[in-house]
Amino acid sequence: MTKKSRFLQTPVEPFAVEAGLTAEQILSRMERISFQGRNLAVAHRVWLKMLESDVTIFLGMAGALSAGGLRMVVAHLIAKRYVDCLVSTGANLYPDLNETCGQHHFLGSPHAVDAALAEDHIDRVYDTYADEEEFIDNDNWIATFAASLDSRPYTSREFLYRLGGHLWEATGRDGILTAAYRAAVPIFCPAIADSSIGMGLSQARQKRAGAGQIDIIGDIVESANLIIRRPRTASVVLGGGTPKNFINQASVQAEFYSPEVGGHKYALQIVTDVPHFGGASGSSLEEAQSWGKLATDAARASVQADATIALPILASALEMSARTILARRQMPLFSMEERTMTIDGHTVPSDRFEDLNEPAV
Amino acid sequence: MTKKSRFLQTPVEPFAVEAGLTAEQILSRMERISFQGRNLAVAHRVWLKMLESDVTIFLGMAGALSAGGLRMVVAHLIAKRYVDCLVSTGANLYPDLNETCGQHHFLGSPHAVDAALAEDHIDRVYDTYADEEEFIDNDNWIATFAASLDSRPYTSREFLYRLGGHLWEATGRDGILTAAYRAAVPIFCPAIADSSIGMGLSQARQKRAGAGQIDIIGDIVESANLIIRRPRTASVVLGGGTPKNFINQASVQAEFYSPEVGGHKYALQIVTDVPHFGGASGSSLEEAQSWGKLATDAARASVQADATIALPILASALEMSARTILARRQMPLFSMEERTMTIDGHTVPSDRFEDLNEPAV
Amino acid sequence: MTKKSRFLQTPVEPFAVEAGLTAEQILSRMERISFQGRNLAVAHRVWLKMLESDVTIFLGMAGALSAGGLRMVVAHLIAKRYVDCLVSTGANLYPDLNETCGQHHFLGSPHAVDAALAEDHIDRVYDTYADEEEFIDNDNWIATFAASLDSRPYTSREFLYRLGGHLWEATGRDGILTAAYRAAVPIFCPAIADSSIGMGLSQARQKRAGAGQIDIIGDIVESANLIIRRPRTASVVLGGGTPKNFINQASVQAEFYSPEVGGHKYALQIVTDVPHFGGASGSSLEEAQSWGKLATDAARASVQADATIALPILASALEMSARTILARRQMPLFSMEERTMTIDGHTVPSDRFEDLNEPAV
Amino acid sequence: MTKKSRFLQTPVEPFAVEAGLTAEQILSRMERISFQGRNLAVAHRVWLKMLESDVTIFLGMAGALSAGGLRMVVAHLIAKRYVDCLVSTGANLYPDLNETCGQHHFLGSPHAVDAALAEDHIDRVYDTYADEEEFIDNDNWIATFAASLDSRPYTSREFLYRLGGHLWEATGRDGILTAAYRAAVPIFCPAIADSSIGMGLSQARQKRAGAGQIDIIGDIVESANLIIRRPRTASVVLGGGTPKNFINQASVQAEFYSPEVGGHKYALQIVTDVPHFGGASGSSLEEAQSWGKLATDAARASVQADATIALPILASALEMSARTILARRQMPLFSMEERTMTIDGHTVPSDRFEDLNEPAV
């Protein structure tokens, strides 16, 4: 034996530059380097495995990725069913709605004088600007739509599906909300109260008493029932936040009612937070295993990088590498026309957890 | 003039070590050093200014600070009215409830083998362990309590007030929830669906159909009405997350209905995230000014530090430095016995925004 | 005019995924998104401008990039003259030497049990392993080579050039040291004492009294004289550390002796540190302008990312986009055969700063 | 047995706020909380253990701590022998020299307009300003001093000792350099070429041919010989950089020549970098064990915090808690009057590594 230690198996192979390398080729060469470059390459490999396995793939999305130019990447991932269910912050859905309505965000500078921006009613998101006034009509548009709904609580999932449909009818334009509507991919927004979509909902109450009711506890029930019905799952997380935990919580909650659920089978996260301060956003995938959020033998990859770098590369590579896998992929089929959604024909109630011992509906 | 430039005003004064220095003395000496040490000292000064001014002080709390040993610091800040309203993640309220019930978290290691922990049903939060089984009774306790409430939506604020009261009756022990109940300090939890408290609420539906309804859109209305009623506010944020944005959003939402509201007058944040990736958690206080979340002349301090270091020092220093200020402080008085809360005798509805032109109730 | 504010000029254009996108195409689409994705695209654009302008391009390299699989990217940047002068830590040159000699680094895990690795004499660099024993011969090889040199101080630049030549003769293999030797690109290593190359040099003293003398103060003089002779410069920095400051210091030092020097004309950095703690590694390019390290009108880009992700993409894109620019590039020509190096035929002494008023040699 | 798992031993004990708490009392209460607060408390405990054991304590110092107001803390740690040997960047020694000469740094803003600062010749270090012109005399003062030395290489250690002595004679003021001179504590500066002290040295060559020679390879030999002579060591690191590695390298190099050396027995680091990118500054203490830099059973603590917060607290606490330990401490005694330094009466040559089999001098 030439190797003196079991630890020395696969040599690092220095990255070789070449003209015309595609995203897929770059990631392929990154598999044998180190640090976050390698992690990004492993993330690509793990996502391919997810697509090949018969799992429901959750995508979690926090940060300001929509305003920051990634909304059409996410819409693309939804439309082509690289993912099956989106869990998002409102701060990613509201800018999506605005751009689908034809407004814009603008390139700006992190060194801007904010008092000058405030005077012009420009809102800054690091190096990106939004025009407050351009959006006021949309707040009202959300409020009006919310006021037009039935006088009953809607899960965020149901509300966002109907909002996406309304938006598609009004604009016929692509975006996250409209893509999800058209592909019948559910969107959960557990912290919808903490966003401009929530603000629009709250303003519905000025239009009609009792309007704007969101049953976010029903979202917990629905998301867990999705997993009870289809226990093999995977998690793709961009940026931590409430979506990261909500996706994990759904699995933990489902396991209370179904022994078949044993944590996500695959997990991939692109994060900028670190574990050292104890927050969930930066927590490691290994830590998630102690909780049973993730199976202890789960294939996983954690990439410490800004999603605005990592996701375009990853999605571009997948578009090449996943082509044939995607064509034969066995994905869950949702119907959301009725108040109670279904997955593969089975109901997914929001008013009580399914009991596996009951016969499936 | 000896100084050649207007930029050179106050010299750095090296920190001088001495035996027996108190937290207050240490912060006082840090005012003339640099970097985050100076920022922590400025934060102390800004908090004192908040207490001296006639402002409603919001405290935002994300991360795993309760499990991590800061829950009694927060309870203390509430009980002694260093703050007037708490906005928290569920992940800080649930461990508080557990410890108030007599369970514990445990010192652990970030290098633990998570598969071994999983086998023992130990959940890891970086370097801290929790016993899953110890908490199962509490989940059920929350579910039972939720099922005992009226069949109507509760704002998270109302629910948490009643939960705090129930907990105080059951245990008579101090903690965040019980301190807030006893001091009549409102707690908002906009992302309650993303936490074990939400899971407990969802389980209430197995006990009683229609139980566990939380009106988080009502929380938006209530929080904005608080500011419409009392427009001078301040913000203290620990760790970003949904609380940070919710506190800012309340001010922005209130400004729609009242020209007297012009952003928080003071702001202080202790964060570990950075602005470079565009997320709200790490966003600068200057960026908040472009949005009008913060007045452009607001006194402010942003400390890049783990709250488990910064907060104990800050709170210990304030306990000395704020003594007389606190004694004469003019703080808002809340009543939460009824479904609709009041502030200083004025109602704070959750079903519609107050219009300033109407006569105050 | 439709835009209400001068701040709103260029809309964000969401990244559009497509199969087969090359690195250049990806970066081109990233120019209109936000955060670090945009910064990476701007970095590409800035590097192209450097190549088009008549500037001497310094490349600074810290971190563990060589062991981590980027040494052939750097060798490529040197061989094709994307850069003109390398400033490196020893920790990047030593692994380069080892791999050029035929040894390897290995893919490992950040979760390894380090005591087990220690037992097997495996050194860990985050997720990468090195075999201590494989390298012992190379330490001795460096020591023997150093002991064979003249009994006088060598600048790190001269020593590394001769080491590169010796290595090329011995192996005929590509790498950073050998590429720099063959392309006559100088390498400075100001902190050579803090590395295994320094350890090899120190061991030369056991072989021959007085061996292993490095004149790092001479490196300061040489690097400044390079800029005095050719005052238009640019800086590309990977990871901060001593190289970042050394490149800036050379410009500041040169300005003492030549009014033509006015800071780098272009600057680009790929860093993972942040500015908030005051260290030079994470310092902003704007801060560098206050020092005169960087011209106040310099085109610049700062990317917050791991170089193992950012550099392969950037270098792959440049290989396409810079093709014609590179072919006609006016780059400085060095000769290092003699003890005193020359640039474009002018001497670059290490024993005294050049005075511009003297006639050029 | 009440505890169901061996993992559950010591409960978290929430931090209790109290008026008048001293630094020592605060750290004592932090021992039972989590995250970086606990780590800071453990660091205090580890430092006390170092002082109680018969070890040589190395202090590494990077970043901009001197300019940032910590130079008198470090001077104090040296004068009272909390540490025995300083390894520093030049960027910490040069500002120390300037302030000892009576110049100042100034409180500034990270949001300054750097072009305006550049116009006034103000150098910015994050939120701290320095007046370029105030320092020009000191550069010349260093150059003049260096030109007055013998025409031979000096280790950075010898040079800095003589510089400290010259500074003490000239000013009679306290500071790092003067405290180290007076306490006969050696200072190594392995990257002296990357600093304004190096620039001063380089300018000495304009005054006298052949002046300003620093034998940094001799520093490697000296530092290893220190450990060969006194093999029990400990490491306290502030901020990573070259000092962190140099201190570890000294132990590794010493072990080549002496089987008694087995890595540092204690280690403590206060860092802001993270391990994920592979750089040495952020590397974990566990990783150091794989290299043998740290004994596998070493007591250790790693604190993720800005030193401007952590060090004042730590040093203030030690001033109380270490009082009696310090009084009876067995520390190494250095003499640096001659060219070759001694430790406890044994020579520490810079021209060859000591062989343990030879009789000690």
List the SSEs and their pairings.
4 copies of one chain form a homotetramer.
Chain A: H1 23-30, H2 35-52, E1 56-61, H3 66-79, E2 85-88, H4 90-100, E3 105-107, H5 114-119, E4 122-125, E5 128-131, H6 132-147, H7 156-171, H8 176-183, E6 187-188, H9 196-207, H10 216-229, E7 233-238, H11 241-257, E8 264-271, H12 285-290, E9 294-304, H13 307-321, H14 323-327, E10 334-335, E11 341-343, E12 346-348
Parallel strand pairs in A: 1-2, 1-7, 2-6, 7-8, 8-9
Antiparallel strand pairs in A: 3-5, 4-5, 10-11, 11-12
Helix pairs in contact in A: 1-2, 1-13, 2-13, 3-8, 3-13, 6-9, 7-8, 10-11
Largest interface, Cβ cutoff 8 Å:
A-B, 81 and 81 residues
Biggest β-sheet description of chain A: 6 strands, parallel
**Uncertain runs of chain A:** none
* Secondary structure: helix percent of chain A: 40-55%
Average pLDDT reading of chain A: 95
The assigned structural class of chain A equals alpha/beta
Shape assignment of chain A:
globular
**Terminal-residue CA separation of chain A:** 59 Å
Query: How much of the sequence of chain A is in beta strands?
Result: 15-25%
SSE string of chain A: HHEHEHEHEEHHHEHHEHEHEHHEEE
Number of helices of chain A: 14
Overall radius of gyration of chain A: 21 Å
Strands across the major sheet of chain A, in which order? 6-2-1-7-8-9
By DSSP, the count of extended strands of chain A is: 12
From the structure provided, what is the oligomeric state, counting identical versus distinct chains? homotetramer
